[in-house]
Design a protein that fits this description.
alpha+beta, 3-stranded antiparallel sheet, single chain, 24% strand, elongated
């Protein structure tokens, strides 16, 4: 079984894309388009599904993501938004699998079962997850969306980033079989992210921090400006001290 087509509806609230894959001998598909239209995001969603990195579906705005296979079957990820007071504006994500002449089977991506004992200190969560800042003992602010998240919500949203050894969710057999049949690997250029060793956790050696490239460039520019100002001050003082001798 091979992937024949991937598509998305409502990406970022405005884009609908359909990408048929080249199934000929070379099996190479080139995806091109303007920056910001969601090319890499669609590949992340594809990688997220087949490698159980489901947090991508919680953080990326979309309504439906679908993968069609060459045997006529398909899987779709549907995201709906519930703004009722009881659910506290949670997103509901459902996987629907369709096979020829068989009834649709579904799996709801519910909240994870938070383990009682974590495999790492809670205090380093904001060092592991980019954009997360601890605001109290039990709550964190996710800076990109300005949301306040509890520990359960952090684990639920970023389960694939956190170094968890315990399986947090039981999945149906059909879903496990489907993911085992398709092998997906995403190789990102990380042109927008840089590794920041200075902010990596000293308590957990595997925890790394990614810094936006624009932030890295601005920090580097600020450092260069400070360095040149210091150099200018030193040169200016030296010239002031030697001015009488140079005049004579």
């Amino acid at each position: 079984m091979q992937i024949q087509q991937i598509s998305v509806s409502g990406l970022f609230g405005i884009f609908d894309h359909v990408i048929p894959l080249n199934m000929m001998d070379e099996r190479i598909t080139i995806i091109h388009g303007p920056n910001g239209f969601g090319k890499t995001v669609m590949l992340r969603m594809l990688n997220g599904f087949f490698n159980s990195r489901y947090s991508v579906f919680r953080t990326i705005p979309f309504s439906k993501f679908q993968v069609k296979f060459d045997n006529g079957s398909s899987i779709e990820v549907v995201k709906t938004f519930d703004s009722s007071e009881k659910t506290k504006k949670r997103n509901h994500i459902v996987f629907n699998f369709y096979e020829h002449n068989l009834e649709k089977v579904s799996f709801s991506l519910k909240a994870t079962n938070t383990p009682t004992d974590l495999d790492f200190p809670v205090g380093i969560i904001d060092e592991i997850i980019p954009g997360l800042s601890q605001v109290s003992n039990k709550f964190w602010r996710y800076i990109p969306t300005n949301e306040i998240l509890s520990l359960n919500e952090v684990i639920d949203r970023f389960e694939d980033i956190l170094p968890l050894k315990t399986k947090l969710r039981e999945e149906p057999k059909w879903l496990e079989n489907l993911k085992n049949d398709i092998h997906v690997r995403l190789i990102e250029s990380q042109r927008l992210l840089n590794f920041d060793p200075s902010r990596s956790s000293r308590l957990y050696s595997e925890a790394t921090t990614m810094l936006p490239t624009v932030s890295a460039y601005s920090d580097e520019l600020a450092h260069l400006i400070q360095s040149k100002l210091a150099e200018y001050g030193t040169t200016s003082q030296s010239l002031d001290r030697t001015f009488p001798a140079r005049v004579v």
